[in-house]
Design goal:
The complex is a heterodimer. Chain A is mainly alpha-helical. Chain A contains 21 helices and two strands. Chain A has one domain. Helices cover 76% and strands 1% of the residues of chain A. By secondary structure, chain B is mainly alpha-helical. Chain B is built from ten helices and no strands. Classes of the chains: A mainly alpha, B mainly alpha.
């Protein structure tokens, strides 16, 4: 007979809880009349809050990392911190989505339940300790996202975006699986900790490991949206309903970063010479293509899509500086987290400005926003400053931390390149600020009054202020990132 | 060459050729049927690997259920073959170069040098009482219980996604409201109008539909 130790179910409590809540939300939504559908929304949000509290309690209960479920599940600081960030980002994404999907008659109950499944997929990714769970979590997340993009059934653009996302995403999953199969072929294991030790002991099939690494990295870079696997990003960000764009641009980035850390740092630390090279190429190309192509855009959603490609490039810099510096990984984690906060806020403002059925996503629509709604314009200013990396916003400290790590790892030329691209990038962020503050609004837009529910306005305010406050007092978040990644 | 080797090469050749046919054929139904053949050939290879149960499942589930359903869908779609061929010549050189690079890389990586019998010895043969199905069930519900559950959640999410993408709102559906039918009043259905009487025309002159 085989030896089998029963799993520690309490370790996976957040996932089990969310699964129960997602199933319950499905049932509740079916029984509700359309005008009571706010109950589904409240239920989903409450389960996110409860899951947050559950993960919080795990932070104290599991001081050291625990691997259970026969090596498929891990609870460590990285997993817990990623889950906390993912839950907060998803909570805000749903808050911003409510008004938007109501105006567009997007199926509401399904939106939140699919969203909850996506959050579950991200939690599974965060505490995956085998390639099988990584893949399954990634698929659960992606599948829900494809459907959420296509949920706006009367929009041809959204369907097209969903189709592109689905086809390219399936290809990326195929690449990832092929890489995993090669690793399994030579090591006979898909568990990350076992892989780490087997690969450490030295195999003579290093070519296979290298090819597997390239295939797996391709799949992961696709999910992060870095060059050369970035083609889907502008089309999907532009075509998807803005609330879904917000969701795609926020929490999944943190979860994808987490599995990138697990695969590169925990499973293949001895391949770091290879993956540093690959990441350096991807990072330079991402910063280059993202920042330059963003300048040419007239649609703000497309512009922010290219900007997200550039930001992923910066985050990869932190990962590749990681092995040779003390702060590389935590700087990358800090960068991704703060980027997610800022991007969520920016997409939220785009979603809020669009009126019943009319999308206001052209740069021209932001002309003179200050005259129409000064507070919203100020929030957008803070967010844009943070994206550009202007002090005292948080984007500045995120970039500073990365550059420090790069210099410490003796990648001074990369740091110089990053700085150069950041200056190029500042142009298009500041152009929005200029449009908002120094130009007069069009008369046609002046007639549209911006009416925003106070609750959502509070959320946007919180988001914008966070970009400033985290910049003034970044140490708490930096400490959290250091704790989780060492 | 042993019989097993002959069988392996036979199945592999069929699998590769039929997989090429899936991509190359312009007729979608033929493409689906080629995919069925690919699955059959793969099932044969799995049988050679002593994965009898999985081979049977592959035939039963994929060929029997999934591909049949897929065939129905493909038959109902009207695929524009001309638009599918568009850009084929344009992208052909790029595609060929890309495929050659990937094939070359894979040959280098998983060639006989890396996965040959010297580095990967043949696994020991199992004794006669070895039960493939029992072994599978043993690990599926113990060691792989967590991934197994996630796969189930994945299917649930897929069902929700599929239904919410194809489902229309109730008001677009033709449904019978019996309560409404019973409570309907004469005034809702019949409208009486007063018309001045005119001289009746000859019935045979008019089309039959307007006489009543």
């Amino acid at each position: 007979m085989m030896n089998f130790t029963p799993p520690l179910y309490s370790a996976a409590l957040p996932e089990i809880f969310l699964l129960c809540m997602a199933s319950a939300a499905l049932l509740i939504d079916v029984c509700l009349k359309e005008r009571y559908q706010i109950i589904t929304y409240i239920f989903v949000q409450l389960s996110l809050v409860a899951a947050f509290l559950l993960v919080m309690s795990q932070y104290h209960d599991y001081p050291s990392s625990i691997i259970t479920f026969s090596g498929h599940y891990v609870v460590d600081k990285l997993a817990i911190l990623t889950k906390l960030f993912v839950l907060v980002a998803s909570f805000f994404a749903f808050v911003y989505a409510r008004q938007y999907i109501k105006e567009r008659h997007i199926a509401r109950g399904e939106y939140y339940t699919l969203g909850l499944f996506a959050v579950m997929g991200m939690l599974i990714m965060a505490s995956a300790s085998s390639f099988l769970t990584i893949y399954l979590g990634l698929e659960l997340l992606s599948l829900s996202l494809y459907a959420m993009v296509a949920l706006q059934k009367n929009s041809g653009v959204a369907s097209e975006a969903a189709m592109k996302y689905f086809v390219t995403g399936a290809l990326a999953s195929g690449l990832l699986l092929y890489g995993i199969s090669m690793l399994y072929g030579i090591t006979g294991s898909i568990e990350i900790s076992t892989l780490g030790t087997v690969l450490q002991s030295g195999l003579h099939q290093d070519k296979v490991v290298m090819l597997a690494l390239i295939f797996i990295l391709s799949g992961l870079l696709f999910k992060l949206g870095a060059v050369p696997f970035h083609m889907w990003v502008p089309d999907v960000y532009d075509g998807a309903p803005t609330s879904v764009t917000l969701f795609i641009a926020s929490a999944p980035k943190i979860a994808s970063f987490c599995i990138l850390m697990r695969v590169l740092v925990q499973a293949m630390p001895m391949m770091n010479a290879t993956w540093s090279l690959v990441l350096a190429a991807a990072a330079i190309l991402s910063m280059f293509a993202g920042n330059l192509l963003a300048i040419a855009q007239t649609n703000i959603k497309r512009m922010l899509a290219y900007s997200s490609i550039a930001h992923m490039g910066y985050a990869l810099l932190g990962v590749l500086a990681g092995p040779a510096s003390t702060t590389g990984y935590s700087a990358a984690m800090f960068y991704i987290t703060t980027y997610v906060i800022v991007a969520a806020g920016a997409f939220a403002i785009i979603a809020l400005l669009s009126k019943q059925g009319i999308e206001l996503d052209q740069l021209e629509d932001y002309r003179g926003l200050n005259a129409r709604n000064p507070w919203l314009a100020f929030m957008m200013l803070l967010l844009m400053f943070s994206m550009a990396g202007i002090p005292p916003t948080v984007g500045f400290f995120a970039k500073l931390g990365l550059l420090e790590a790069l210099v410490e790892a003796h990648y001074v030329w990369l740091a110089a390149l990053a700085l150069l691209f950041a200056i190029i990038g500042a142009y298009y962020y500041l152009r929005i600020v200029m449009l908002m503050y120094f130009e007069e609004p069009h008369e046609t837009l002046m007639e549209h009054r911006i009416t925003i529910a106070p609750g959502i306005m509070a959320a946007v305010t919180l988001n914008g202020i966070a970009a400033l406050a985290l910049g003034l007092l970044p140490s708490a978040l930096i400490d959290m990132c250091r704790l989780s990644l060492g | 060459m042993t019989a097993i080797q002959i069988l392996f090469y036979l199945f592999s050749t069929i699998a590769i050729l039929s997989a090429l046919m899936v991509v190359a054929s312009t007729n979608p139904v033929r493409g689906v049927l080629s995919l069925v053949l690919t699955f059959f050939a793969m099932a044969g290879i799995w049988l050679l690997l002593h994965a009898e149960f999985l081979a049977l499942i592959l035939v039963l589930v994929y060929v029997g259920a999934v591909m049949t359903l897929f065939l129905f869908v493909v038959m109902m779609l009207r695929v524009n073959v001309a638009s599918m061929r568009e850009g084929f010549v344009r992208y052909l050189p790029f595609g060929i170069v890309l495929s050659l690079v990937i094939v070359g890389l894979i040959v280098v990586a998983i060639g006989p040098k890396q996965f040959g019998l010297t580095s990967m010895p043949i696994p020991p043969t199992k004794d006669i009482n070895y039960n493939n199905l029992a072994e599978l069930g043993m690990v599926l519900y113990t060691q792989y219980a967590y991934p197994f559950e996630i796969a189930a959640v994945l299917l649930l999410a897929a069902i929700v996604a599929a239904i919410s993408l194809t489902h229309r709102k109730p008001h677009q559906r033709k449904i019978q409201n019996i309560g409404k039918q019973i409570t309907v009043k004469r005034a809702d259905r019949v409208r009486l109008i007063a018309m001045p009487s005119v001289k009746k025309m000859n019935v045979s002159d008019k089309p039959s539909g307007e006489t009543s």
